[in-house]
TrEMBL record:
SUPFAM superfamilies per UniProt: Ribosomal protein S18
Pfam families: Ribosomal_S18
Matches recorded under HAMAP family: Ribosomal_bS18
InterPro entries: Ribosomal_bS18 (IPR001648), Ribosomal_bS18_sf (IPR036870)
UniProt signal peptide: none
Record's protein name: Small ribosomal subunit protein bS18
One MF annotation (Gene Ontology) recorded for this entry: small ribosomal subunit rRNA binding
Quaternary data: Part of the 30S ribosomal subunit. Forms a tight heterodimer with protein bS6.
Keyword rRNA-binding included in the entry's annotation: yes
One Gene Ontology cellular component annotation held by this UniProt entry: cytosolic small ribosomal subunit
Function field: Binds as a heterodimer with protein bS6 to the central domain of the 16S rRNA, where it helps stabilize the platform of the 30S subunit.
GO biological process assignments: translation
Length: 71
């Protein structure tokens, strides 16, 4: 059985920054919810850093909290 590798560690990303919107958007659903670890394959340590960066980016208005979807 092979060990899963975290995509963030594999890409040699040392610091998850709230200003790196392109990276953060990869780990959001189409409704701007944070993707769970078992779908994204991110390690627990990086998932916590990622969630914190997304929450800071939302607070700084760099990301939307929810996507406005009208029927």
């Amino acid at each position: 059985m092979t060990k899963k590798v975290c995509p963030i560690d594999e890409a040699w990303i040392k610091f998850i920054d709230y200003k790196d919107i392109e990276l953060l958007k990869k780990y959001l659903t189409k409704f701007n919810k944070i993707v769970p670890r078992y779908y994204s394959g991110v390690s627990l340590k990086n998932q916590k850093k990622l969630a914190r960066a997304i929450k800071i980016a939302r607070h700084m208005a760099l990301l939307q909290y929810v996507l406005n979807v009208k029927d």
